Inverse folding.
């Protein structure tokens, strides 16, 4: 009798220890990855659905253990709708605390036409979205030209991949018609658009300048675009200087808007080969010959 009772106690103790070990394990973070993801609770999501989403996105180990803990501490019906940045390195308690506290407020960032990669990087840093240099250091200058001008909303301390994905997705959505209809390498179009955006403020002049750029490339004439000189100094790379080097710059020199991209993809033929910008009116002044261009330089620029 005593032995049987002892065996029951021993078995129950072992089972309890095993259960406690399992619960302890279930509360451990899924991984040690510090990079978070955006987790969203939509209005109307039930507790069961929220837990399943956490599990499916790799943020918790065992849904049942998460449910039991949430019910016991009274948090099950206090999880608030919104977007959260959650890492798989967080344990169940940390995740529940975040979801009960409610989402962080997102921040609006305005990217204007012609902003450079460095300018956008600085805006995101000032807004507390990314550490300084995050965009600039990403695959060299890969992102230049792809940060489509628009108003974006980000959470403070957002994951870099999530920020880039939002930019790239918006760029494609806004330009997919032009991309689909382009008869030439679209990256070439984007480089030309980035120069037009910096050089030509009025839409009625942009297609003509687009045609001039194509004409200069076709005859092997240097582009001699002032904006590329300024960009070359900014990035400390003379290869962008189209006075010094023939052909297009290696990458876009700014982030152009839709109108500049459209003009770059739809060049207008003309008899002009030269142009300059009137410093007073910002109007583009076109010339057919070098002599005429020299006269305009003296007339408008006094040089």
């Amino acid at each position: 009798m005593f032995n049987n009772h002892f065996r029951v106690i021993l078995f129950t103790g072992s089972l309890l220890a095993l259960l406690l070990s399992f619960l302890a394990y279930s509360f451990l973070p899924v991984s040690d990855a510090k990079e978070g993801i955006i987790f969203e609770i939509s209005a109307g999501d039930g507790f069961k659905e929220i837990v399943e989403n956490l599990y499916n996105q790799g943020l918790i180990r065992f849904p049942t253990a998460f449910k039991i803990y949430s019910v016991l501490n009274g948090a099950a019906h206090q999880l608030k709708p919104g977007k959260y940045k959650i890492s798989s390195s967080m344990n169940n308690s940390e995740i529940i605390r975040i979801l009960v506290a409610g989402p962080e407020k997102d921040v609006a960032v305005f990217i204007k036409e012609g902003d450079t990669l460095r300018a956008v990087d600085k805006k995101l840093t000032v807004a507390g979205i990314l550490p300084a240099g995050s965009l600039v250091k990403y695959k060299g200058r890969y992102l230049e030209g792809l940060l489509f001008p628009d108003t974006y909303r980000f959470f403070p301390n957002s994951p870099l991949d999530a920020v880039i994905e939002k930019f790239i997705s918006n760029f494609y959505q806004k330009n997919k018609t032009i991309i689909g209809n382009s008869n030439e390498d679209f990256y070439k179009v984007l480089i030309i658009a980035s120069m037009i955006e910096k050089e030509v403020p009025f839409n009625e002049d942009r297609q003509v300048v687009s045609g001039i750029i194509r004409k200069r490339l076709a005859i092997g004439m240097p582009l001699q675009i002032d904006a590329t000189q300024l960009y070359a100094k900014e990035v400390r790379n003379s290869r962008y200087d189209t006075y010094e080097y023939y052909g297009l710059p290696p990458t876009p020199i700014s982030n152009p808007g839709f109108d500049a991209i459209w003009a770059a993809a739809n060049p207008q033929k003309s008899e002009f080969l030269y142009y300059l910008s009137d410093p007073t009116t910002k109007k583009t002044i076109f010339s057919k010959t070098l002599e005429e261009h020299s006269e305009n330089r003296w007339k408008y620029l006094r040089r």
